[in-house]
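Risk mitigation, structural track. In case the binding assays with beta-D-glucopyranose fail to produce interpretable data, a predicted complex structure has been prepared as a fallback.
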Amino acid sequence: MSLHRLRTALLLSASLLAASPLMVVPQTAHAEAVAPWMDKTLSSDQRVALLLAQMTTEEKRLLVFGYASGDQLTQIDPSVIPGLNTREVVANVIPGSAGYIPGIPRLGIPAQFQTDASMGVRNHLMPRTSLPSSLATAASWDPQVTEAGGRMIGTEARLSGFNIMLAGGINLLREPRNGRNFEYTGEDPLLAAEMGAGLIRGVQSVHVVSTVKHFSINAQETGRTTLSAQISEPALRMSDNLAFELAIERSSPGSVMCSYNKINDVYACENEALLTDTLKRDWGYKGYVMSDWGAVHSTVQAANAGLDQQSGFPFDKQAFFGESLKAALSDGSVPARRLDDMARRILWALIDKGVMDNPVVKGEIDFEAHHRIAQTAAEESLVLLKNDKALLPLSGQKRILLVGSYADKGVLAGGGSSSVSPVGGNAVTGLEPKGWPGPVVWQPSSPLKALQAQLPKARISYLSGDDLSAAARAARSADVVIVFVHQWAGEGFDVSLDLNGQQDELVRAVASANPNTVVVVESGGPVFMPWKDEVRAILSAFYPGARGGEAIARVLSGEVNPSGHLPLTFPASEAQFVHQALPGGDLPPNSSFTVRYTEGAAVGYKWFDLKGYTPLFAFGQGLSYTTFRMDGLKAQAVEGAGERLTIGFTLTNTGAREGKTVGQVYVAAPKSAGWEAPRRLVGFRKLSLSKGQSQTVSLSVDPRLLAVYDEATSEWVIAPGAYEVQLGAASDDIRTRVTVTLAAQRLAARQGKTVP
Ligand code: BGC
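Fallback model:
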């Protein structure tokens, strides 16, 4: 059965289960209070060691095997699963959820209740609060925003009975057409890591394990389970894996999810170089690796390569970590110490993240408070890309026309396993596809109603835009027209950057009828805007979440000053893509193929810099209703081993109102350094400044951001020489530069230690 069909079947069966009396999730049994591993004064490692010593082999095997939800479970052949008690699993799995791993009551080990994903609790039977897409919140350039969001969705997870969230997607935006770009945090390793780490810290702050994913280089959905991503080790360490490395250091996620694809011809979930050498050895990762749903292909190779838990059976063809693992353990092809290590890692996550000490208790959710958090996140994330002659904020216009994209009803969300069912129901129903990875969800947050509430004196109306001449006619008699356009993206498919239907024609028809045209773009990632020069203002909303309509209205009206900046580049045309044609796009489904990431670590703006391309909108762009000065740039490197580059600068609000800006620091290396591209982002800071206010910032640069990975010695190498430090409001808006001389330096890849 294909993954899609299997998922649909599981969801359907979960609906049936929901109606069954078996759905009650029992309270996790507690171990005796005297159990020594429950002693919170001991370290997590000590507690795990004490607990592991009590476990039988059968119990350890129970921990490493996960189930999906659904009544397929009753059809599983019990002989392939360790100690399977189908009734127990079916009775306890939360219907509609991602997965379940039974607990071990005699030892107080809680069952693992798994839920997707990064925007919120995803369960078609449970309406929950949706954050803006992860790409949107990455546009806030403020890890406190994602951390607050993570805390909110983690709280909803706990109150819904879950203790494991599959939240923390940070794959780099390498392929602009990737259908899951909205689930990730953009194209730059530092920004992606910082924003993803914020979310993970937030989720884990309420004692829910968070899962950084999809490890690694799962950059497109076309052929995701069959393609081999080909990339050199240095390029991988300096790009996608650098994002994972930094995110893991900054947030200590309890688990890592290995991806569907192969990397250099070896499946990610049985890839020793990735899971053991890079993640566990070099980065010193102590948590566990869970597979993506259906991403396991072997028992011995996967177990010995470093996979710790098979997820979501029966998504995989076989119960690889079921009876076959038992056989492999008894013939020694998987050593007993490997099973111990798997169990140790899972227990470490459950203890260290407080899951074991704080059993989940279902309860009521304060949706109003949580929706406000989603709204704040959206308000920090909306990116004003164009605002000719300060058309925005709206001021005093009497007749305002909104056109298109159901702006009278709601705002768009992405599809697939991260799609949160909205509180209040889907605002627009009946759109294709109805089945997986649909339904197409529109959060019931109407920009029209929100704008009417914001501007009670204006006459604000809406037209669907289906009839272009009617839209143009109506536009003529409006003072300002706001056209909403959208691109739906989701898991399991890739997208075109051309807006579908006649949306481009609609913008053009309206813009030619009324010069005061604003376009609001709701998209999974970048889109083309052939009408860019014909409209006066453009606001990028990505997928703005449960209160996106309110956030958009408040930015348009000026109640909120926009402060988002692009975490990605918007290409001007396909000619600027690394791969002109989508790899595998012309092959029949299930074909195996190789995607050669010849750009290596030159992802996003680095690729554009390297090629000298001018994008539609550059990485880091984002306008405000006020203006800022950026000056006082200083860069200092303290000589000697372990030297750190420190940067100082001053940001000043020079405009007429309060606002937020992001000081973005890029470093350009001398050619001899051998960087993948001329420049890298090495630091950033978002500040809120009142009118006339100044603030000084100081940052310390992670040495890996100045280095090149040397595969031969497994070291990060900083070349000596003169480096240019640039401070700007966007990658193409550098305001000031200084030069700093760096000494030669080498750092061991193993947890970034300096080599004397
Ligand atoms: C997705 C994961 C998700 C898992 C469980 C997979 O199809 O790739 O991101 O967490 O399903 O639903």
